[in-house]
Design a protein that fits this description.
single chain; alpha/beta; D-Maltodextrin-Binding Protein, domain 2; 2 domains; five-stranded mixed beta sheet; three-stranded parallel beta sheet; about 35% helix; ligand-gated monoatomic ion channel activity; Solute-binding_3/MltF_N; signal
Length: about 290
Amino acid sequence: MAAAAVVAGALALSGCSSNTESSGPATETTAANAERVEEIANSVPAEIRESGTLVVGVNIPYPPNEFKDPDGKLVGFDVDLMNAIAATLGLTPDYREADFDKIIPSIEGGTYDVGMSSFTDTRQREEVVDFVTYFSAGSLWLQQVNAGIDPENACGKKVAVQSNTTQATEELPARSQKCIEAGQPPIEIVPFDGQDAATNAVVLGQADAMSADSPVTQYAIKQSNGKLEQAGELFDSAPYGWPVAKGSSLAQSLLRALEHLIGNGTYEQIATNWGLEEGQIDKPVINGAIN
């Protein structure tokens, strides 16, 4: 279920009106906007090229990047972009749902060719897989309107987060440790398996705030019908990347396909359709971690 629907349902349960805003992009974007580029397609590893299929591990829901619409169709910024990438490579994407923390191990084990789940490219993750960067996102908190939460002074607060994200494994533990060192109560980190449940916890008052990637937070606020708002400012901007097997030449193929889509305007169109213009990049790289 898309976070938009979860938020709307939670608002109804808590006595608030449900949200009627559309959860889709401004205009339809499909792989039809991209075509096979022979030279780039020929660079794909032989085994993948011969199969004609790009097996993609994905964790949902994480709107607006990857989630299901009311008809059960997989949609989102990441989905539109990967569809265009696959078309450029002359491949058909085969999306396979998985737990977030199982995607990278499954790439290592050869089950998936690539991961597509808003992965932050980090040096720790680069030890086991390679990344092709495609977007820039920061972390951003949300709260109920007028809750007065300050991420820089959140000791003792309950903060919801999706498990195994950088916010869960790095940001919030570091903030909580600073509280302890200052003689204040730690942040109560409230983890959830899905991003929708983390957002829902704030809507229902089960958590004081939530920390997530900026596109996710901004989208949840838009879908909340004025019940949620930003808490604090965006911080820790870092690249999203597609993970592939360490040393695989598929990374170079993905890089070239993305450069092509940036050059012909398809990338910008997809980002604009999902309201994510601010996170666009103009120069993708392989392994661009900054932390």
